[in-house]
């Protein structure tokens, strides 16, 4: 089969590899669509997680069941499914405490499990879900991105009438803005640098901060005394500090995107305003909810898939995803 393989920094090739064998608890999937994630681009650029190379990349995917392990029930050949990249072990302390998304022995597509940018890939059957016949595979591939966005919103602990600022206009920030439509919030504001991407945030208020010397006053303009929660959906220390300044007392900053260079924290302000800073990583049992969200026409999540390419054109797809933020939101590779 053909697969997109990461062999070294910025060294990605389409290779011929055997169709994988599956274990007794796994499904073999003919890939229908695999969408490109920002983390895929980070892995290609710098391999920040020290992934053992070479590896087939990709982790957001959906497709058709073409092989079934002998211990698997509930699936048939030809089933259309979406898959979750995180494979918790089930026995470590985190898993035993119900925190499988923070598993200490986690398997993950494109890291220590072969990824989804291939004609075929395998998945443990408990990490697969059926999708409706009418759901396109590129949309179904967004189930995991939606699930992690739901986790970020849950970590924000918002209630009706609260205000939310999302820092970042990439696919995840925009997804959060659309999902927040269902939460009866007083304000949902998205800050970013690209009017093209901000336009996908639908009914959210949009603020382009690219050319603002001091963005904080503009970010605070929609609210009286700051935001109840800020979600950091861009890996930028500058955005972290700006978002932190926009919180009201007892506000909560959710770190969804990691900041590679680190960020200083004003602990005096944390102390005197009783601020909270929390992480959001993977999702805690939100996969089924995410699949359901994909079927909600009011959210229009399929609109985020702006480009589709066959697997053979992976180089063009990756180049656009990396460099064309004024033209591209989400790209799907089609099997």
Large-scale geometry: globular
What top-tier CATH class of the largest domain fits best? Alpha Beta
Q: Share of helix among residues?
A: 10-25%
Beta strand %: 25-35%
Low-confidence stretches: none
CATH fourth-tier homologous superfamily of the largest domain: Medium-chain alcohol dehydrogenases, catalytic domain
Cα distance spanning the termini: 11 Å
Indicate the structural class. Answer: alpha/beta
Q: Roughly what is the average pLDDT, rounded to an integer? A: 96
Largest β sheet strand count, sense and barrel closure: 7 strands, mixed
What is the annotated CATH architecture of the largest domain?
Alpha-Beta Complex
Q: Can you tell me the number of structural domains?
A: 2
Total number of strands: 18
Radius of gyration: 20 Å
């Amino acid at each position: 089969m053909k697969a997109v393989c990461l062999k070294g920094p910025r060294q990605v090739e389409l290779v011929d590899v055997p169709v994988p064998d599956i274990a007794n608890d796994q499904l073999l999937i003919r890939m229908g669509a695999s969408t490109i994630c920002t983390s895929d681009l980070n892995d290609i650029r710098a391999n920040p997680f020290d992934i053992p190379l070479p590896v087939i990349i990709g982790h957001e995917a959906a497709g058709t069941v073409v092989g079934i392990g002998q211990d698997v029930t509930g699936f048939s050949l030809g089933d259309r499914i979406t898959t979750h990249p995180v494979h918790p072990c089930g026995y470590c302390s985190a898993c035993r405490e119900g925190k499988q998304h923070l598993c200490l022995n986690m398997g993950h597509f494109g890291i220590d499990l072969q990824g989804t940018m291939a004609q075929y890939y395998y998945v443990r059957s408990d990490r697969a879900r059926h999708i409706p016949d009418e759901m396109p595979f590129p949309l179904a591939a967004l189930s995991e991105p939606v699930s992690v966005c739901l986790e970020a919103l849950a970590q924000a602990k918002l209630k009706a009438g609260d205000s939310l600022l999302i820092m970042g206009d990439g696919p995840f920030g925009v997804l959060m803005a659309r999902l927040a439509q269902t939460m009866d919030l007083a304000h949902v504001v998205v800050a970013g640098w690209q009017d093209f991407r901000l336009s996908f945030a639908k009914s959210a208020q949009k603020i382009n901060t690219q050319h603002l010397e001091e963005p904080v006053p503009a970010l605070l303009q929609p609210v009286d005394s700051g935001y109840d929660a800020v979600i950091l959906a861009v890996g930028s220390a500058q955005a972290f500090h700006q978002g932190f300044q926009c919180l009201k007392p007892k506000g909560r900053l959710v770190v969804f995107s990691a900041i590679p260079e680190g960020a200083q924290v004003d602990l005096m302000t944390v102390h005197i305003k009783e601020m909270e800073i929390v992480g959001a990583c993977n999702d805690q049992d939100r996969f089924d909810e995410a699949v359901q969200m994909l079927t909600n026409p009011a959210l229009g999540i399929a609109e985020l898939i702006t480009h589709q390419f066959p697997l053979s054109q992976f180089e063009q797809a990756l180049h656009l995803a990396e460099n064309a933020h004024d033209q591209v939101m989400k790209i799907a590779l089609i099997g």
